[in-house]
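Troubleshooting entry. Yesterday's outputs looked truncated, so today I'm pasting the complete records for two proteins to confirm everything comes through intact. If either block looks cut off, that's the bug. Protein one:
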Amino acid sequence: MCIPISQSSPDSIVLSKMKKIDTVPEMAIVGMSHKTAPVEMRECFSLHDDEVPRFLERTQSRGVSEVVYVATCNRVEIYFATADIPKGMQIILEELENISSLKHCEFDSMTYRKYSRDAVLHMLTVASSLDSMVVGENEIIGQMKKAYGRAVQKQTTGVVLNRLFHQAFKTAKRVRTETGISKNPLSIAYIATELAKKIFENLGERRALLIGAGEMGELILKYLTKYNIGGVTIANRSIHNAERIAADINRSARIVPLDDVADAAMDVDIIISSASSPSYIVTEAIAKELQKRRDHQPLFLIDIAVPRNIDPRIADFHDIFLYNIDDLKMIADDNLKNRLNEVEIAEKLIESDAEEFYRWYEGLEVVPAIQRIRETFDGIRKKELKKYRHRKLKHLSDEDFKYIEDLTAQIMTKTLHNPIMHLKQYQSEKKGHSRGAAADSVREKTKLIVELFEK
């Protein structure tokens, strides 16, 4: 049986005991990812692009001051900031019920909720792709920028989430540039293309032959086309399938029957083979003829068929570079190990940036108080100056009176210097304590100092 959302979250009980900040909202995240929920559950919470603005507006209108909705193929996350976190979380969960037509008890165990420091650390980790299915992938940062842009357009971000998202983008850039976590491809098709680029300086001057219609072979051909391969030949038993592949890669291609592979191979520099065949399609005899015709110019062979289409003994031929699916998989595994070795470095960068952000965020606790103190004193100063200007100091010129204005402003600044610095220092000293206790202590000190000047 589902119980009301307001009673369902064990952490809401803890949060409800926290005193609310008057003007500085708390941060939180609720979400699910490939690590916590299957795709059939995640897709229940995925909104179409034209539905997101309404979701943002509706959530904000219900009392959540700042909100950003992020959805990718691997995660759905809602970042929000509000002065009343328990109420805000309740609103978000109710909206998730509306999106999915599910009761919260049906998805509650698959969601995660993070607050304050944990929320900051999580967001920076996600943006830096350390929480992605493929560590080091670059798509997530673009997706988060798009989600943030939508929220900015609908004016559902504020001082906290604006700063947090920009910090995330900055951190993600640092991780990409200061570590090797995004270097070396993991995709088999992309690795094959990168190898081709190393063998041939200019792919635009080269031609490729695709043998068969396997999915991986077609994907490699798509990558080669992306890098402007000079020409394409497709050899297939089915002319219809060959024409479909040419249409998919959006390239004109020479199409030949599978039996004409030997002749077609004489005019190309790259051969990708993924056909279903009980025997070798590219034999030693064909390879020897290719060597002779090409005058020992480099030839790149990619055999991703199982069983293999290309005689493995050809790998011993001079100036012929042969890679099979196991070779490419081995490179991918090595690349993944190298990426994972960089994770520890990336995590330290993320932790450092998260702490920097949080120092700024905790400083917001005292900003309203400092502003109020300054405004109070400045109001008194200007009021008294105005009275004196029209009575005892009316004989002064505007230029002379400006000196008095500047002098009183300096006196005010110097008078307030120690109380304000004391407040900032006290807040800084408390930053290492637990979030709730530190925040309460800073608020009490802030309230005391403000009351000294206002009452």
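Protein two, checking that the full record survives here as well:
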Amino acid sequence: MTARLLDGRDLASHLRRELLHRVKRLTNGDPDTAPRLAILRSGLSDAAALYAASLERAARSVGVEPLLLADETDALLRLMDGLNEDPRIAGIVVAQPLGDPERGRQLVERIDPGKDVDGATPTNAGWLARGEPAFVPATALAVIAILEAYDVPIAGRRAVIVGRSAVVGRPVASLLVARDATVIVCHRATRNLARETRRAEILVAAAGSPGLIRPEMVNRSAVIVDCGINAVPAGIVGDVQFATVAPVVSAISPVPGGIGPVTPMMVLRQLVESAERAASPRTSGAIISSTGTEPSMNASRSSVS
């Protein structure tokens, strides 16, 4: 059997070109008026540093000016009010994890919800839970973007999510429910995890546990989206045992090269939408919306044996 490869790199390229066009339209070609993305980082976390760097590169690639602020959390807290009030700043992202989780929570909660382009604040989490999302965690949006780009049916499908974090598992569940999937959220207290995952038509792995999903835990019709980013001696791997699972499912996203390239584009898409609304309050002018259809990747027939 040959699984279709859900390649996030192709989708990210589509989104990059679209966003670059929208930013040029916003600025009339004047880079000095480009919207700015503030990226805040504190502590020594390699994961946070990698995320901040990927956001910085992605922002520059679409004409958005990144402002990277790396400092102690208390210093960043003092800067936050100024960032919220600065009309040049269209979006603010806190790269996680932070060195001090409690102070990090305070930092996230101080973001103006109208500039929270990674959907991290309690206000935006609440709107998402109500089914009326404003800004959504970018990785969760990337999951939906990949499914829609590859024309994977969602409505009526049984979706199983392994992981219940506030940044992936729970928001993905809300987004899938909004698209009429029947959703099961599994976690460390789930009894007989394999029984649940074998029933999944769409399986989202977001537990942060390398190689958790094995071939005996899936069915042959399953579409798997792997959100795991795990550093092991051999490199970066996902939550799915890719080499052994790929031959026995219908479609799968790789790690790296799946969700990873799409996530920064989701941050930037939300930032550009925010900037468009600010520029034209009565009309969004959006070409790609957080609730719309992604560019179809149907023409791309990449597969993995």
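Both blocks look complete. Sanity check on protein two: The chain has a mean pLDDT of 91.
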